[in-house]
Amino acid sequence: MSEVTRPTLSDALTERMLELIRTGGHRPGDRLPSTRELSQRFAVTTPTLREALRRLEATGAIELRHGSGIYVGADIERVVLPNPNMRELHAAQLLELLGARIVIEPPLAALAARHADAEELAALRQLLDQAGRHLRGEDAILHDANMSFHRATARLAGNSVLHEVVDSLLTVHGPEQREILQIFDDRSRDYEEHLAILEAIETRDAAQAEARMRSHLMDVKTVIEQRLIKM
Asked: Where along the sequence do coiled-coil regions lie (predicted)?
C-alpha cells in the first residue's frame, strides 16, 4: 500500500488563505491584506507565502497586481477550472475537442432559447454584429467575438457548471480554436451559421437552436477532418 501523502506547509497555507477569503466575506475584486500582513498573520516566511499565492493565482482564486496588491480572483467560485499546463493538441485531439463541443453545446443553445431575457439576447446580437465587422483579415478580433458568442450562449443556458466546461475548453484550447478558424477558412459561412443559431434563440425555438448549433459544429468538424487529411 502506498503511503498517504502528507500535506505540506504550502498546502495548509493555501487552505488557510481560502478560509480567510470565505469567512471574511470577500468577493471577487476585493483587496486582501498585504504580503507582509499575511506572513505575520500566518507566521510563515515570505517565500512560503508566495508559493501558496502562486498556487491560488494559477486557479484564479486570487489576482496578484504588481505594485497594487493581492485581490480576490474572478474564478474563486468556479467548479470547473481550465488546466494552465495543457500542451498543444495534435490533429486527433483537435477533432476530439470539436466532438466534445458537439455533445455539450447544442443542448445549451436550446436552453438559452428558453431562458435568455431581452437584454441578454441584445448582448448576444452585439457580439455577432462585432464579428460581422471583422470578416476580412482581422482574425484575432473575429476569433474573440466568435468564442465570446459560444461562451455567452452556454452561459445563457442557466447551468453554471456546463458554462464553465465550455469556457474551460475554449480557454485552454484557444490556439487550437484559432487554428480551426484558419483551417475552416470560410469566415462568411461561419458567421451566417452563427446568425442562424442566434435567430433560433431569439424566436425561442429551442429545437431549431439545438439543431443549428449541432449542424454548425458538425460542419466545422467535417471540414477540419477533410483538410487535415490533405495536409
From this structure: none
Return the H-helix or E-strand segment holding 82: none
Write the pLDDT tens digit of every residue in 69-89.
898 887 766 654 455 545 555
Kindly tell me the sign of the dihedral angle through the C-alpha atoms of 66, 72, 77, 79: positive
**Is 57 found in the same domain as 17?**
yes
Contact status, residue 34 vs residue 70, Cβ threshold 8 Å: yes
> 16: domain CATH number?
1.10.10.10
Is residue 143 within 8 A of residue 177, CB to CB? The reply is yes
Torsion of CA 204, 207, 210, 212, to 10 degrees: -90
In this structure, what DSSP letter does residue 199 have? H
Domain limits for position 208: 91-230
Which set of grid coordinates corresponds to residue 231? 495536409
Summarize pLDDT for 105-126 with one digit per residue, the tens: 999 999 999 999 999 999 999 9
Confidence of residue 187 (pLDDT cuts 50, 70, 90): confident
CA-closest candidate to residue 148, choices 134, 89, 137, 136: 134
